[in-house]
Amino acid sequence: MRKKSRLTYLALAIAASCTSGSALATDNEMIxxxxxxxxxxxxxxxxxxxxxxxxxxxSLTNPEFxxxxxxxxxxxxxxxxxxxxxxxxxxxxxxxxxxxxxxxxRSHTKLxxxxxxxxxxxxxHGDPRxxxxxxxxxxxxxxxxxxxxxxxxxxxxxxxxPGFLNKVSDGFIRTTIKEGRSNTRMxxxxxxxxxxxxxxxxxxxxxxxxxxxxx
Length: 215
Ligand code: HEC
Ligand code: HEC
What we know:
Blueprint: H1 2-41, H2 43-46, H3 63-68, H4 71-80, H5 95-106, H6 115-119, H7 128-143, H8 162-165, H9 170-179, H10 200-213
Helix pairs in contact: 1-5, 4-5, 7-10
One heme C (HEC) binds near residues 164, 177 and 184.
């Protein structure tokens, strides 16, 4: 009896180590497939290695972006696109192919995944009129009046667009404003190295203003 259970245990351990080995192999295959799919469907805009192009398409392999963007954000943004921008929907690729593309993008990860923590941050509260003043003063040059993005001629994305706002948490917006995205024109706006050193309240005022735009 005892011998048998030890054997069973051994067999289970071997089976487990085999599955984790082949799981790794499948991961690599998935990343490879994702890279091909990316090159076929996305590279024309997002560029090789998804580094983006100012005023044309954002970077999808930017470290700060990858660390705060959840799989849910990726899957639904790729599936639905951002109506009103050139980010078209890719629902026809189907879930598994989109998953492979996300695995490929994630293979560029350099920072820990903070998406759950960022999405769990409290909602923004503040004064949208003050937020609008800050927005027009600091953000509109790049993101356009009303957050219209590239359409308005700037280098920033359409952050007033419901296709963006409905897919992100206030924590995602807040962290992006505070920390920015390295090697893009989106600099951080908080702390002494920040472009404008906005206070937490001022940043929340801007978020509340953006939320109003999509209504
Ligand atoms: C015709 C050009 C074009 C193609 C093709 C395209 N995209 Fe985009 N994508 C964009 C633009 C432009 C934006 C930013 C839209 C905006 O202003 O908000 C974007 C935004 C995104 C975002 C959100 C990024 C962020 O910073 O929040 C993701 C994710 C994304 N695209 C993934 C993909 C994937 C994956 C593919 C291929 C399956 C793809 N895109 C194909 C133009 C494109
Ligand atoms: C100098 C130009 C510039 C300024 C000023 C600027 N941004 Fe950005 N912002 C960008 C760019 C460029 C990106 C996308 C990064 C990329 O292209 O990969 C971005 C991305 C963002 C995103 C993420 C959007 C997405 O599609 O995922 C948010 C949110 C954002 N900016 C908010 C702001 C706010 C709020 C302000 C004002 C306090 C601001 N930005 C000022 C250029 C700018």
